[in-house]
């Protein structure tokens, strides 16, 4: 993983090669055994005009050639789709070893509105973003409804933000590494009430992360010098947004990034033969702090309405029984859109292997976690056409 | 029908009309399903509700409804002067549409959910000297 942050001097291939060679080194494989690569990237075309050939550019400067390259786009869920497809490619038996990565450059020196304009292109322009809709605004509107429904407060959002910033302070790969107290979060500049700046992730960041995917059989043969125990993708499911009639009540969780997550997690839990009680570590899509609160419910970590109580109990802190976003989450790690899901996967693997150093979670009996749940979603489209993909991933040792 | 020399253009074609022959009021162009009567916006030919092919017909959506949600945005993309009010309006005809609110103070404490709003067609943003024309909603003023 290349650190997430502001790197105006680096191109996508510079970020990608750091992530790719780290993954190769970590897996302990000869790079020549990689047979296919999936590259998630959303906005290279927006900033450079280079719409296609993104996958070749991201991969060939790492010296890897002679393999099929697939470019994946799907908003914030791009990385999950790339990983999903790499897993299917290997599971099908067609390929033995796949490389999957996410790389994004979104930081523009001195022009934050330009970064917002870039991510706006993931929305349906004609009926939403060209008229003024922003993702932050849309999510904030949902958060306000949920505050009313579940009794969440602005203080709860501040608690999520300070928790994740404290975790980020222990993560040398995080964008933001300065801790911040809940009081400081509440006193910060309002972005859209009730959200203050530290409760929102920044998409104006760059970064890359990569994973090597192979079958268990190939792993035994090829990964002789892996940096730690193998991690298994035990459950993996994508769900898409369904249309809900405007003459009926929408009974989904009530937030763009979370609405289809229960469907995805039900499938992933079933596939893995696991349930929410088995989860010892979670990574969730906290583009804004209220999304993390709602995720506790959609992952099954608590009953609907118990989210704030779970947070306030400390259960989701680094020293809690089910730590959430140990790397700082989107809020502190940063949210370079197509790279985000790989940032989650990277941290989950490090934690499951017990190699997270100062931020290692020991949720049960002083040993590293054994089951991690990863939630991510990609917004594309506009109101009512909501989310292109919602991803549920269960990683186990 | 984009003309690069024109200083004004709609955000997209086929979304609204500024006023019909039998009415002076502007309207949004949606569709209604012959089979299940679902009304959607923007226009579609195939119904996402009953999943039927070619069952939807053009349907005029009156630019009138109620404020379902809003938020005052203090940051925005290129072309929008902040602060501005982002909102969702539940149209009397069914669909919920995204809109900016105008004719209203962008002050959280002074905007009420559920108020009656109506549409006007006008400039929503200006980028590189080009006015983009779309819709906004504003509170209905009751003359006493």
Strand line-up across the major sheet of chain B: 6-7-8-10-9
Query: What is the residue-mean pLDDT of chain A, rounded to a whole number?
Result: 94
CATH class of chain A: Alpha Beta
Radius of gyration of chain A: 19 Å
What is the radius of gyration of chain B computed over CA atoms, rounded to a whole number of angstroms?
A: 16 Å
Number of DSSP E strands of chain B: 10
What's the CATH superfamily of chain A, by name?
A: Thiolase/Chalcone synthase
Instruction: Give the oligomeric state.
Output: heterodimer
Structural class given helices, strands, pairing of chain A? alpha/beta
Mean pLDDT of chain B: 90
Shape of chain A: globular
**Main β sheet profile of chain B:** 5 strands, mixed, barrel
- Name the biggest interface: A-B, 35 and 37 residues
User: Which regions of chain A have little confidence, pLDDT < 50, spanning 5+ residues?
Assistant: none
In sequence order, what are the helices and strands of chain A, one letter per element? EHEHHEHEHHHHEEEHEHEHHHHEE
Set out the fold topology.
The complex is a heterodimer of chains A (397) and B (144).
Chain A: E1 2-5, H1 12-27, E2 36-40, H2 44-48, H3 54-60, E3 69-72, H4 78-91, E4 97-104, H5 112-120, H6 135-150, H7 154-168, H8 182-187, E5 190-192, E6 195-196, E7 206-214, H9 216-222, E8 232-239, H10 261-272, E9 281-283, H11 289-298, H12 307-312, H13 329-333, H14 340-352, E10 371-379, E11 387-396
Parallel strand pairs in A: 2-3, 2-4, 9-10
Antiparallel strand pairs in A: 1-7, 4-7, 5-6, 8-11, 10-11
Helix pairs in contact in A: 1-3, 7-11
Chain B: E1 8-10, E2 16-17, E3 27-33, E4 39-40, E5 56-62, E6 64-73, E7 84-91, E8 96-101, E9 116-127, E10 130-139
Parallel strand pairs in B: 1-10, 8-10
Antiparallel strand pairs in B: 2-3, 3-4, 3-5, 6-7, 6-9, 7-8, 9-10
């Amino acid at each position: 993983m290349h650190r997430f942050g502001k790197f105006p001097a680096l191109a996508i291939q510079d970020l990608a090669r750091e992530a790719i060679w780290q993954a190769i080194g970590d897996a302990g494989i000869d790079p020549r055994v990689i047979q296919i690569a999936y590259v998630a990237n959303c906005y290279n075309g927006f900033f450079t005009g280079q719409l296609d050939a993104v996958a070749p550019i991201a991969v060939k400067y790492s010296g890897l050639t002679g393999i099929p390259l697939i470019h994946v786009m799907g908003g914030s869920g791009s990385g999950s789709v790339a990983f999903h497809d790499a897993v299917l490619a290997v599971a099908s038996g067609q390929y033995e070893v796949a490389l999957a990565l996410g790389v994004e450059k979104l930081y523009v020196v001195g022009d934050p509105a330009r970064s917002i304009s870039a991510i706006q292109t993931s929305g349906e322009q004609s009926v939403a973003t060209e008229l003024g809709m922003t993702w932050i605004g849309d999510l904030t509107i949902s958060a306000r409804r949920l505050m009313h429904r579940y009794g969440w407060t602005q203080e709860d959002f501040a608690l999520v933000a300070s928790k994740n910033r404290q975790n980020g302070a222990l993560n040398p790969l995080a964008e933001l590494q300065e801790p911040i107290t809940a009081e400081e979060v509440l006193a910060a500049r309002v972005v859209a009430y009730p959200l203050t700046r530290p409760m929102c992730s920044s998409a104006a960041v760059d970064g890359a992360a990569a994973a090597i995917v192979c079958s268990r059989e190939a792993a035994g043969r090829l990964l002789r010098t892996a940096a730690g125990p193998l991690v298994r993708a035990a459950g993996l499911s994508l769900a898409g947004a369904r249309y809900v009639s405007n003459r009926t009540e929408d009974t989904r969780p009530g937030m763009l990034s979370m609405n289809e997550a229960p469907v995805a997690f039900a499938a992933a839990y079933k596939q893995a033969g696991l349930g929410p009680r088995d989860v010892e570590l979670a990574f969730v899509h906290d583009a804004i702090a209220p999304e993390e609160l709602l995720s506790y419910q959609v992952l099954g970590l608590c009953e609907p309405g118990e989210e704030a109580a779970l947070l306030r109990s400390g259960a989701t802190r680094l020293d809690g029984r089910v730590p959430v976003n140990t790397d700082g989450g989107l809020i502190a790690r940063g949210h370079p859109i197509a790279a985000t899901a790989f940032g989650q996967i990277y941290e989950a693997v490090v934690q499951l292997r017990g190699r997270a150093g100062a931020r290692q979670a020991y949720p049960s009996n002083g040993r590293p976690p054994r089951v991690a749940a990863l939630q991510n979603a990609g917004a594309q489209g506009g109101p009512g056409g909501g989310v292109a993909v919602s991803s549920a991933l269960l990683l186990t040792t | 029908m984009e003309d690069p020399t024109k200083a004004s253009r709609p955000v997209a074609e086929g979304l609204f009309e500024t006023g019909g022959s039998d009415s002076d009021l502007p309207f949004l162009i949606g569709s209604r399903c012959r089979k299940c009567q679902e009304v959607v916006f923007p226009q579609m030919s195939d119904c996402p509700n009953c999943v039927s092919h070619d069952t939807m017909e053009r349907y005029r959506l009156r630019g009138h409804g109620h404020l379902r949600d809003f938020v005052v945005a203090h940051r925005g993309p290129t072309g929008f002067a902040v602060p501005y009010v982002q909102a969702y309006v539940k149209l009397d005809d069914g669909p919920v549409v995204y809109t900016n609110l105008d004719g209203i103070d962008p002050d959280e404490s002074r905007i009420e959910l559920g108020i009656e709003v109506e549409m006007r067609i006008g400039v929503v943003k200006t980028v590189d000297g080009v006015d983009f024309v779309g819709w906004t909603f504003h509170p209905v003023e009751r003359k006493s």
